[in-house]
Design goal:
- The chain is α/β, with parallel strands linked by helices.
- It has helices at 2-16, 35-38, 54-66, 104-114, 140-150, 164-180, 200-206, 220-232, 234-237, 261-273, 289-295, 298-304, and strands at residues 30-33, 76-78, 118-124, 154-158, 186-189, 209-211, 246-248, 278-280, 313-320, 331-339, 345-351, 359-364, 374-379, 384-390, 392-397, 401-409.
- An eight-stranded parallel β-sheet has the order 7-6-5-4-3-2-1-8. A six-stranded antiparallel β-sheet has the order 9-10-11-16-13-14, covered by helices on one side.
- Helix 5 crosses helix 6.
- It is globular, with a radius of gyration of 22 Å.
Length: 418
């Protein structure tokens, strides 16, 4: 069938991709990233509990370790922009803001490591960061060594204030510089987000993960835009995802302010299907119970972290038309599928609509890559077996909601990689 052939082609391409071989990020990284929730709040006098400071990161590390997240694989505490002083030190090294990080980054890294967690940090390839702090252009080797000396475990390298030529040389040079330090540092690139026609073969050669779309916002429209974008460009990006190199659709905004519970489930489900990094950006000190349950769902996390490492794809789209309202009021129902280990497949049934109540959405087992007519179906959010079905499964899906199920073939030839 057509979709199976596409996936066979994808796997063949993947085998020829030269990926960064530092032995890191063999499954999508999981953890917490400050940016969407706390942005560049540097006013610690007016807002000491929410400003970008060592106190904030230490508190988030405390909660990541104590509230069950670490045990499920959430291991990174990631700094973003606005942590730096406005000038480099006398030796040309980056330095943290002395008032907001009075003990320095090495102290913070040691604290985070004492919790059994890892520290991620931010820099920018250009002349300055996006927020105007010192950039890495002309300082790649010294910055890589500085991060290694501090005990950093992941670097996110942004691309503000840089040129096309800077991207083409700077990201590979930073990859080499990080490797030359001898410290294992996961490398997160923003390279494809800043260029019109990314060469993913080259990007996968030098980066463990890469941003390739707009920054996420705390709204369903932002989340949906990313989902639709990933579906539209899946033929370009899906073949390059795999152990050690991942497409990054940006942070999880689950537990913030802009998403309903259904929409939070939808983001978690699609990020699992996409084999995306699970980097929360929320306030772990005030996380609602329903958001925590979504983020800590072991069966959904297992889909995201599946060792096969194949990114899922959209396999079908259908329009739901409300009679009498015309084409303009039509909404899309979508089915996404991701092959898993042990010949199973995860399927997300997504209702993008916002009217007319729940929709019935059907997945055909053959479209999802199953060769058998019969499959066991399990609802992963409800953690409930739904029974054995023949050839298709239909679920009722709420507006801007999702049903995430696992299909396990009953017998026979089992599975065809899509």
């Amino acid at each position: 069938m057509k979709w199976c052939c596409i996936f066979f082609t994808s796997l063949a391409l993947l085998g020829h991709c030269r990926a960064l071989n530092n032995g890191l990020a063999l499954t999508p990284p999981m953890g917490w990233l400050v940016w969407e929730r706390f942005a560049c709040n540097t006013n610690c006098d007016a807002d000491p509990d929410n400003c970008i400071s060592e106190q904030l990161f230490m508190q988030m590390a405390d909660h990541l370790a104590a509230d069950g997240f670490k045990d499920l694989g959430y291991s990174f505490i990631n700094i973003d922009d606005c942590w730096m002083a406005r000038e480099r030190d006398s030796s040309g090294r980056l330095q943290p803001d002395p008032e907001r990080f009075p003990h320095g980054i090495k102290y913070l890294a040691d604290y985070i490591h004492s919790k059994g967690l890892k520290l991620g940090i931010y820099a920018d390839l250009g002349t300055t960061t996006c927020a105007g702090y010192p950039g890495t252009l002309g300082h790649i080797q010294v910055d890589a060594q500085t991060f290694a000396d501090w005990g950093v475990d992941m670097l996110k390298l942004d691309g503000c204030r840089a040129t096309q030529a800077d991207y083409e040389t700077g990201y590979p040079n930073m990859s080499r510089a990080l490797n030359s330090t001898g410290r294992p540092i996961v490398f997160s690139c923003s390279w494809p987000a800043y260029i019109s026609n990314p060469n993913y073969t080259e990007i996968a050669e030098f980066c463990n993960l890469w941003r390739n779309y707009n920054d996420i916002r705390d709204s369903w429209q932002s989340v949906l835009d990313i989902i639709l974008h990933y579906a539209q460009i899946q033929d370009k990006i899906q073949p390059f995802a795999g152990p050690g190199h991942w497409n990054d659709p940006d942070m999880l905004v689950i537990g913030d302010f802009g998403l309903s519970v259904d929409e939070q489930r939808a983001q978690m489900a699609l990020w699992a299907i996409f084999a995306a990094p699970l980097l929360m950006s929320n306030d772990l000190r005030k996380l609602p119970a329903e958001a925590k349950a979504i983020l800590q769902n072991k069966e959904v996390i297992a889909v995201n972290q599946d060792k096969l490492g194949i990114q899922g794809r959209r396999i079908s789209t259908s329009l739901y038309r409300n009679p009498g309202l015309g084409e303009a009021e039509a909404s899309q129902n979508m089915v996404f599928a991701r092959p898993l280990s042990n010949q199973a497949v995860a399927v997300a049934l997504l209702n993008t609509g916002s009217f007319a109540g729940p929709h019935n959405i059907t997945v055909k087992f053959a479209d999802a890559g199953l060769k058998t007519k019969m499959a066991h179906v399990r609802d992963l959010f409800e953690q409930k077996d739904l029974g054995t079905f023949e050839e298709t499964f239909t679920a009722t899906v709420n507006p801007s909601g999702v049903r995430l199920v696992k299909l396990t073939p009953v017998s026979g030839d089992h599975y065809v990689y899509l």
